[in-house]
Amino acid sequence: MAAPRRPVARGQRDSGLDAARALAMALVVAGHAAVSFMVTPVGWAVQDRSRNLGVDLCAWIIRAFAMPMFFWLSGYWSRAVMQRGGLGGFLRNRATRIFAPLAIGLVPCSLLLDALWDCGRAVGDRGVVAANIPKLAPSELPIGLGHLWFLYYLLLLSLAAVVATRIAARVRRPGVAARIPALAVPAIAIAAALLAIDALQPDTPLGFVPDLAILVYSGGFFAWGWLVHARPDELDRYRSHAWRAIAIAPAVLTIVCVTLYRGLEAAADPPGYAVVASGAFSVLCIIGLLGLCARYSDRPRALVRLGADASYWCYVTHLPIVVALQIALAHVALPGIVKYLAIVAVTIAACVASYAAFRGVRRSSRSHA
Predict the structure, then answer these.
(1) Residue 88 resides in a domain
(2) Are the CB atoms for 315 and 147 separated by under 8 Å?
(3) What is the domain range of residue 62?
(4) pTM for the full model?
(5) 205 has which bridge partners?
């Protein structure tokens, strides 16, 4: 049994959660970098000449828990911000951390990604996306959300959190979050959302009209993180059961893999048990990742802290770099694994370096102010 986690003092960094955030960001980059090497077309900008069906499974696994992990972390820290700064502080934080980057980056990112998708179309043919495959759902407007859909849905969930906390205060139940089982909300929300759309994973929303199923699905992970923050001992449970969760996850994944394999040749909706297994796999992976990070990253490390600090910046800036590199290397006669690793390494290095440079400029300007 793992030793109890040392309590984190108010205002002190949690090294385990820093590691989880940095790892989640690296997985998002790795997942997006893998898409061009998939055999199954999903509407991506380009398909590389080197494709392997094993990449499809790896990309599916990463997609199953990398973005849900980001929503979990957002829910966790959202409650921390609310608790520390009250409603006013929370709204100011959401305005500067979510709304401002979304408003500033929306048009440039959309135009740049549109241009890259056009370039990818010129470089090579793209396969037709099957109806039963999670794909990029295009926006009806000239400007789409692209990968910034995460910020858009996080903003909506933050507003929902404000409403929920106001309702709890009105009915004089301010501690209700501490009494709700932490896994009850995500289990119900995730299963309900996936069963409603009859899919193992939701599509990627690019339009501005919120997709209710995706909102509920993402909200389940956001609420889970929020509820875990309300009970400090919950992370200790994940720390203790991390290896059990990792051990169970492959068995659950086997059920999903059978359905995925059959789905390559049939457009029928997946069976309910496979949908529930897919949601359970995401939950188990998050418990395992959080637990292992808490278990083995209990001391501050400069590189991990930099990765955690840069994760938000990396998310906003990484996709155009990934896609540009995928297009440039699509027809280069190199082994796929070499091109893939180069895309991941160059993207992460460029994002982290630009973040460090930007942070240095900000600190310098403040010191001379």
Answers:
(1) yes
(2) yes
(3) 15-367
(4) 0.86
(5) 137
